[in-house]
What does this fold into?
Amino acid sequence: MLVSATEMLNKARDGKYAVGQFNINNLEWTKAVLLTAQKLNSPVILGVSEGAGKYMTGFKTVAAMVKAMDEGLGITVPVALHLDHGTYDGCYKCIKAGFTSIMFDGSHFPIDENVAKTTELVHVAHGLGLSIEAEVGAIGGEEDGVIGKGECADPAECKLIADLGVDFLAAGIGNIHGVYPANWEGLSFETLAEVNKAVGAMPLVLHGGTGIPDDQITKAISLGVAKINVNTECQLVFAEATRGYVEAGKDKQGKGFDPRKLLAPGFDAICAKVEEKMTLFGSVGKA
Ligand code: 13P
It folds into this structure.
């Protein structure tokens, strides 16, 4: 069932658990995430970066595929189709394509411009029943060409953006996209606690979910994080499982080269990773 992410995230914030946003790249990814959410009776958010949207031949294709797959698989748990790190133009494209949620990443604009553009998009998104996420304090690392330094957000700026009416807020707390370097200092819970206090009951979003130790995830949820984004970790397990299949020569046995067979270990690995994360985040049985 395709829905906006507002209700599922407000419930998660109240119930002290988090809903996973799993970024999708193709049919296998989408099917793996949807079937796992249904199996575990968990709400879920499908994240689509602008790069992944382009790869899948445009947001229109993505929305059509997700809608049809949701129906075709008989998915009854709440599913939000969400633009990840959207540009101003990208947000409008997704709204038109039929996404149910958008993120406007105005963190690189001067604050006045971020405020003006966010205000406009909140108005448009809410008028059409979509949810909207905003970001304060760049998330570090690189994702699909979007590069951020990994700052800690200013709580006063978070309050300013939250008060514009966004539904959930991503605040940088030392998190980065991709694999964390060995010398990473961990999440700044001091910043998270201050942001949480500043924004009241607003669900907070933790980007860069890959590789954050379980105890830090649990602590972040206790401090208001209700949405956690995971992308790289699914890519890593998919690649590893596919490599295992090929290195074992299975593509050369019988019809092992059939893409449905070749991609099956990677598909299974994504299902297992999503199940592990949903269990850790506490969203199992919360649909
Ligand atoms: P990771 O790739 O580090 O899991 O980050 C995902 C993310 O934050 C998507 O916005």
